[in-house]
Automatic annotation (TrEMBL), chains A, B:
<dbReference type="InterPro" id="IPR010192">
    <property type="entry name" value="MenE"/>
</dbReference>
<comment type="function">
    <text>Converts 2-succinylbenzoate (OSB) to 2-succinylbenzoyl-CoA (OSB-CoA).</text>
</comment>
<feature type="domain" description="AMP-dependent synthetase/ligase">
    <location>
        <begin position="9"/>
        <end position="353"/>
    </location>
</feature>
<dbReference type="Pfam" id="PF00501">
    <property type="entry name" value="AMP-binding"/>
</dbReference>
<comment type="pathway">
    <text>Quinol/quinone metabolism; menaquinone biosynthesis.</text>
</comment>
<keyword id="KW-0436">Ligase</keyword>
<dbReference type="InterPro" id="IPR020845">
    <property type="entry name" value="AMP-binding_CS"/>
</dbReference>
<keyword id="KW-0067">ATP-binding</keyword>
<dbReference type="InterPro" id="IPR025110">
    <property type="entry name" value="AMP-bd_C"/>
</dbReference>
<dbReference type="Pfam" id="PF13193">
    <property type="entry name" value="AMP-binding_C"/>
</dbReference>
<comment type="pathway">
    <text>Quinol/quinone metabolism; 1,4-dihydroxy-2-naphthoate biosynthesis; 1,4-dihydroxy-2-naphthoate from chorismate: step 5/7.</text>
</comment>
<dbReference type="GO" id="GO:0008756">
    <property type="term" value="F:o-succinylbenzoate-CoA ligase activity"/>
</dbReference>
<dbReference type="InterPro" id="IPR045851">
    <property type="entry name" value="AMP-bd_C_sf"/>
</dbReference>
<dbReference type="InterPro" id="IPR042099">
    <property type="entry name" value="ANL_N_sf"/>
</dbReference>
<keyword id="KW-0547">Nucleotide-binding</keyword>
<comment type="similarity">
    <text>Belongs to the ATP-dependent AMP-binding enzyme family. MenE subfamily.</text>
</comment>
<keyword id="KW-0474">Menaquinone biosynthesis</keyword>
Length: 487, 487
C-alpha cells in the first residue's frame, strides 16, 4: 500500500510562507492552513472524534471548510460533504445513509442541519464551525496519507434516484490532481480560481490541486462574473473551472481581451455550443471541455483548446493515466457507434458506501456516447436522463419520487427542458386520479417544501398517460413530445 | 493493485504524430516508437521470449535501446540494463547474478558480450540488436502496466563492493517522473536533452518522462559540449540533465547568454562549487542541484535555483511525495546534526534482486548528511567512501577486491583523490609482502584487464600499513593523509 507524506505538511515544508489561498482580500499561507487545520484536528480529537468517524460538513466556500477538510485527514476520519442547497429531508437521508456521527456547519445553515437531525431516530450532533474546540496542543496526527484509505464521501444518484455516497480515497484525489497536471501542464505561475462549490467534486478537486501542486487558489464563495473577470484581468489568475452558464456570463460582463497569461477555462457540464466557443475564442479564452463525474473525482476526459473547433461537441480523450471504452452488446463498439461509456483509472472511485464495490475493472458510467475515428469521445446522453441545471445535476427519479408522495398523483415523470439561463430546468408530467381537483400550484408548493429550489419543476403538465416502451418502462426522452402535443 | 494504460499507447492515443525523440537530425513520433516497439516485442515473443524473462541490454544511447525497453514492457519481461563500460568479467557477474536469459547488444559490444558469456557455465544467448526478429504480426501485448510489477534492474554497489541489482517497478519510474513534474513544473513547450547514458537511472528516467509526460527529448549518444549548447541555443531545448563536469564544459564552450526559454540544468553527483554556480548564474543557466541514487529512480531531493546561493552546498528538500529523515543513534537528529540519510516514497525501489527486501519503511541510504534549521539537506559523505569520477560511481571495495587477487599484495585500500577534469579518480594504497618485487606498473596492468577504465586506480601507493579504527576496520577517509606523509 502506497503512502505519501501528508500533502499539507509537505507544502508547508517546501514553501511555508507561499500564498496558498486568497479569499476576500485575505491571504493565507500553507503554514497558516497547516497551523489552523492541526489545531482544529487536535480540538476534534479532544472532543472525542476518532479515526474512521464519519463527519459531515455543511458549509459554503470558506476557510473553515478548508481547515475542516485537512483536519479530517490529520485525524484519519472521513468527510461527508453535504450540498448546502439540499432540503432538511434530503440532508437527513444522507446523514443516516452515511452513518454520520457529527455535523459541522456554518451559522447560516445551523437550523437546516438541526431540522434534518430531528427527522432521524439516531441524531448526529450539530456543531457550529465557529464554536469548534481549538486546541493548542497538537495531538498525534497523521503524518502520512495512505492512498487506499477513504477520505471523502459525496452524494450522487444513478437512474434509480436514490442518492448514493461516492467514496473517494486519498489516492483517487491525488491521481486526479496529477492527471490534470499531466494534461494541462503545471507552471510555478499558476493560480486557479475556484467559484464552484467545494462540496461538489469539481470545486473540491481544486482544494486537492492546491496541496498536491503547492499552487495558490483564489476562493470565491459564489460565482460573480465581474469579480471573476477582475481576478483574471488584474490578479494573475491563470486557470478557472466553470460550467457553461458561467462562461456565458463572464463573456457578457467583459469587453476587453483576456490577457495571454490566462491559460484558460476548464469546463464541465456537457458540450459547449459553437457560438459560445467562437465568442470565447475571440475574447482570448482557451476553453478545455471535459467529461467527468463524482465517481471519477472530477474530469477524466478532456478536449484541448487546439481541437475545440475541429472536434466540436466532443469531450476529448481520456487523461493519462485513465482509460475509456464504449461498450454495446457486450463488446467494444466500432468508431461512431453509440454505446455505454466505461472508464478506468486510479482516480475512479471503487464504489458507493453501503453498496457492493464495482464488480468490473471498468466503471460503467450509465452515459451513452461514441468514439470517432481518431478516438475522440462524444457524449450523447449525459447520465441517460439526467438534467443539468446551472451546473447542478438534477435526477428526474428523485423528483418523481417526491411527486408520487402526493396522494392525487398516480404517475409522474420528469425531464429537462431547455432554459436560456440555466441550460436546462426540470419539467414534470403527471397523471392524476379521475376525481382529483389538485392544482399545479399545490403540486409546486409541495415540491418546494421537499426539494432544493433548483430541483423544483419549473413547469407542471397534466397528461393522460406517460410514454412507456414495450417492457412498460418509462421513456423519459419522449416526454418532450407530450409538451409539443399540448401546445 | 494500480494499473495504468501502457504509457506509449497512451501518448500515441493522445498525440500520435507529435515528436517523441530527436536523434542525430532524425525525428521520431510517438506512433513511430509504438510501431517499432510493438513489432520488436512481437518478434521477441515469436523467438521464444516470455513474460517474466530477464533480458539484458548492452547498448549506448540509440533508438534500438528505446524500442527494446518498450518492447520489454509490452511483453512483461524485465530489462537488465548493462553499463557498456564494464569489463567482460564484470558483465559476466551481472548476467549470472541477474539470471539473464538473453543479451541484446549493439554491434560495437558484441565481442565483449560474447567474452562475458563464455566465462559463465550457463551461457545466455547473445543477440545483436540489428538482427532482432521483426514481426509484422503484433501478438497479444500488454495494454496495461501494473505499477507493482518489476520493469528494470540496474546494478549498483553498496560499501561491500559486491554489485547488487536494484529492481525498479513501473510504479517507481512513474512516480519518479511525476514527482519531478510536481517539482519543476511541466510545460507543453518542454524539450529535455539527454546526454547521460540510458543504462544509468539518470538517463533512463528521461526516457520515462518522455512517455509519462508526452514530452519530446533530444537524445545524444554521448556528451558533446558544443552540440549540447547548440541544441539549447537553437533547438528550443528547455531542460538538460548533467553531472557537474558537464556543466563546466558547457560554460567553457559558450560565450553567449543562454536564452530565457531555457528552464535550466538538473545536476546530479554532489554539490556544485560556488564559482561554478556563479558562472552558471552569469550565463543565465538556472541550476537545480539534486540528490538521488539508483535506488530512488533518480533525484529524490532537489534544490531550486532560487535557493542555490542561500543554501550553498545543499541538495535541497525531498520531492513531493517523498520523505526524508536523518538518523543518528536510532533517533531523529537535531538540526545540523550529522546522521545517516533515510528516504521513503513510491519512487524508492523495494529492494535488490537476490536479496531480502528492505525491512524498514525507509531506505537507509548509507549516506551521511544533516538537515539545517529550515530542513534543507546537506550531504556530507556521498555513500560513505564512494568515488564519483566523471559522473560514474566508483566503489572502492570493488577495486580493492581486484587488487587483493594479486598474490604479492597483503592489503589494499582505495580512495578518491581530487582531479581537475573528472572531479575524483580512484587512488590505491597497497601493503605488499616483504619479499615482493612487484612494480606499480604490474599492478596497474592487472587492474586494466579486470576493470572498466574509469575504475582503474590513477595512482598506486606502497604503504607499510593501512589506517584502521579501534575495531580494526579500515578508515578510508584517512588514506589521503598517507598521501601527504609520502610527499
Amino acid at each position: 500500500m502506497i503512502e505519501i507524506p501528508h500533502w499539507l505538511d509537505k507544502q508547508t515544508d517546501l514553501q511555508p510562507n507561499a500564498t496558498a489561498i486568497e479569499l476576500e482580500g485575505r491571504v493565507v499561507t500553507f503554514n497558516d492552513i497547516k497551523e489552523k487545520s492541526q489545531r482544529m484536528a487536535s480540538g476534534l480529537i479532544n472532543s472525542g472524534v476518532k479515526k474512521g468517524d464519519h463527519l459531515a460538513i455543511l458549509a459554503g466556500n470558506r476557510l473553515d471548510f478548508v481547515y475542516f477538510i485537512h483536519a479530517v485527514s490529520y485525524i484519519g476520519a472521513v468527510a461527508v460533504c453535504l450540498n448546502i442547497r439540499l432540503s432538511p429531508r434530503e440532508i437527513a437521508y444522507q446523514l443516516e445513509d452515511a452513518d454520520v456521527k457529527h455535523v459541522y456547519t456554518e451559522q447560516e445553515h445551523i437550523n437546516k442541519a438541526s431540522e434534518a437531525a430531528h427527522i432521524l431516530k439516531k441524531q448526529p450532533s450539530i456543531i457550529p464551525l465557529g464554536t469548534l474546540p481549538d486546541s493548542e496542543k497538537v495531538m498525534d496526527l497523521n503524518q502520512f496519507l495512505k492512498l487506499d484509505d477513504v477520505f471523502t464521501m459525496m452524494y450522487t444518484s444513478g437512474t434509480t434516484g436514490k442518492p448514493k455516497a461516492v467514496m473517494h480515497t486519498y489516492g483517487n484525489h491525488w491521481f486526479s490532481a496529477v492527471s490534470s497536471a499531466l494534461n494541462l501542464g503545471l507552471s510555478t505561475n499558476d493560480k486557479w480560481l475556484v467559484c464552484l462549490p467545494l462540496f461538489h467534486v469539481g470545486g473540491f478537486s481544486l482544494l486537492m490541486k492546491n496541496v498536491v501542486y503547492g499552487m495558490p487558489i483564489v476562493l470565491l464563495n459564489r460565482f460573480d462574473a465581474p469579480l471573476v473577470n477582475d481576478h483574471i484581468m488584474n490578479n494573475n489568475v491563470t486557470l478557472v473551472s466553470l460550467v457553461t452558464v458561467m462562461l456565458q456570463r463572464l463573456l457578457k460582463s467583459q469587453d476587453e481581451l483576456y490577457p495571454s497569461t490566462f491559460r484558460g477555462a476548464l469546463l464541465g457540464g456537457g458540450p459547449v455550443p459553437e457560438p459560445l466557443l467562437q465568442e470565447a475564442g475571440q475574447a482570448n479564452i482557451p476553453v478545455f471541455q471535459s467529461y467527468g463525474m463524482t465517481e471519477t473525482s472530477s474530469q477524466i476526459v478532456t478536449l484541448s483548446p487546439n481541437d475545440a473547433f475541429r472536434k466540436l461537441g466532443s469531450a476529448g480523450k481520456a487523461l493519462s493515466p485513465a482509460s475509456l471504452r464504449v461498450i454495446a452488446n457486450d463488446g467494444l463498439t466500432s468508431p461512431n457507434e453509440i454505446g455505454e461509456i466505461h472508464v478506468k483509472g486510479p482516480m475512479v472511485s471503487s464504489g458507493y458506501y453501503q453498496h457492493e464495490p464495482h464488480a468490473e475493472d471498468y466503471l460503467a458510467t450509465g452515459d451513452l456516447g461514441y468514439l470517432d475515428e481518431e478516438g475522440f469521445l462524444f457524449v450523447v446522453d449525459r447520465v441517460k436522463d439526467m438534467i443539468i441545471s446551472g451546473g447542478e445535476n438534477v435526477y428526474p427519479a428523485e423528483i418523481e419520487s417526491v411527486l408520487q408522495e402526493i396522494k392525487d398523483i398516480e404517475e409522474a415523470a420528469v425531464t429537462g427542458i431547455n432554459h436560456e439561463e440555466w441550460g436546462e430546468v426540470p419539467s414534470a408530467f403527471v397523471v392524476v386520479s379521475d376525481q382529483s381537483s389538485i392544482t399545479k400550484e399545490e403540486i409546486y408548493n409541495f415540491c418546494q417544501k421537499r426539494l432544493a429550489s433548483y430541483k423544483v419543476p419549473r413547469t407542471i403538465n397534466f397528461v393522460s398517460e406517460l410514454p412507456r416502451n414495450a417492457a412498460n418502462k418509462l421513456v423519459r426522452r419522449n416526454l418532450a413530445q407530450l409538451l409539443d402535443e399540448e401546445d
